[in-house]
Amino acid sequence: MKIETAKVIVCSPGRNFVTLKIHTDQGVYGIGDATLNGREHAVVAYLEEHVIPCLIGMDPRRIEDIWQYLYRGAYWRRGPVTMRAIAAVDMALWDIKAKMAGMPLYDLLGGKSRDRVMVYGHANGSDIDETVEAVGHYIDMGYKAIRAQTGVPGIKDAYGVGRGKLYYEPADAALPSVTGWETRKALNYVPKMFEKLRATYGFDHHLLHDGHHRYTPQEAANLGKMLEPYQLFWLEDCTPAENQEAFKLVRQHTVTPLAVGEIFNTIWDAKDLIQNQLIDYIRCTIVGAGGITHMRRIADLAALYQVRTGSHGATDLSPVTMGCALHFDTWVPNFGIQEYMRHTEETDAVFPHDYRFEDGHLICGETPGHGVDIDEDLAAKYPYKPAYLPVARLEDGTMWNW
Ligand code: KDG
Ligand code: MG
Question: Taking every annotated instance into account, which residue ranges of this chain make up the domain Mandelate racemase/muconate lactonizing enzyme C-terminal (predicted)?
Fold first, then answer.
């Protein structure tokens, strides 16, 4: 069996997506996601110029060997561009293998560990009252777990506050828009939101919060401590994690569960955090961390230390990643939760899929493969539109982490 052709499809049905389609000489094809928000064409070039020429003629059944070829064989390892390209190939090859086996992907991975996958949605508002109302809508829709973000008085466009309600997409301008940040103001405001949320809705639902890399370790420890009475499911990306040791200080001072990993690319980014039990949830996902083959290694390492998965699932990960993630979540023994930011109707139409939302959970389908396809004719009607994520500056103009 041979890989005959492979092509990259770029489309923008509401937002930009990069998709890889691999055809075999046996008529079976597979689909992979290679979307890197705001840097899409870097991955397109990497795939078209440096990966696809090597793939032609290879045996698509040798998923592990092809992964090692693309990772070790490049000599230059890791990084968001390389690992997304590898992830796209890996997803497409698992799709092909599962289709050939006539099995839904979760079966090929080892079978179901659960019937459905708990997801969390994003509730947000321009102030506490609006966010409290938005959380109520999510509860009404059946969600068991809800991430709550609020605008903060005096901060221009605080992270996580969308314009639309269900379809929040932060990459919104042809050049990066400039947003603001002031930690003091956020530290004064965010705990009050959780106080009101618990006073309004009680403690039956899981509540989550994303610090989006804004706090220093000391500030993050302070926030985690202030949030303890509200029993969060997790506090995410409370401080940048390039220095994995930074989490020691946070961990020493708070029992609020910690989650990190959406910008990690490999097991090496997470190794010390996991082995030192500095986090509770590892949030890498299939497209960001080298595909199913590598995510399996991360999850297995995490399982040794009672760290559970919490796969990133923002709108910039296409339905192809969501499909793969849901099969992975259905199999992985140490599953925690799955993020679910809904795609637009246009996106869902371009990527027909068989997963569905029910009672606060996503359920993956039974179609052989990962269950997500691409309608190429429809995709062609949505050409690429440059869109960057915003940047953030402090009040005095200092560049900060968005
Ligand atoms: O493209 C950036 C988004 O994926 C990110 O801002 C979303 O932090 C995020 C989350 O937790 O979904
Ligand atoms: Mg996040």
Answer: 128-257
